[in-house]
Amino acid sequence: MSENTTEVLVGGAVLAAAIGFVVYAGQMTGFAQASGGYPLTASFRSVEGVTVGTDVRLAGVKVGTVTDVVLNPETYRADTTISVARGVEIPDDSAVVVSSEGLLGGNFVEIYPGGSPFYYTEGDEILDTQGAVSLISLLLKYVGSGGEDEAAAQ
Is the pLDDT of residue 138 over 50? Predict the structure, then answer.
């Protein structure tokens, strides 16, 4: 009987640890976050590194998440929906930029607030956007332009 009790206790501890891990993972990815925000849309040329669940930050503080990313077949742009926490008002002349956390870090969506006295409301579209800048393409441009400068000098 003591063997069965021990097995049940160990099994319960393992199950509790697994449930705790799932809850923690859900909170860290924003999956379990309450939908207490309001949606805004934005269209980007490139959202490289941005997926559903990516952080939306204002002044370095997480104020929302990306909730949808789809390709617009007419404009060939990435139409993105973000959810911004209620109580966070975004001026209607703000810009939205896909930023990088560093050379090896991931990307996130950053809001640069404007100075307008009017604010976006639920479902509005942010028109001032800047897509992701690819580090590889920047390096290729730098390397490629170095060769052209030498050839022009000769």
Answer: yes
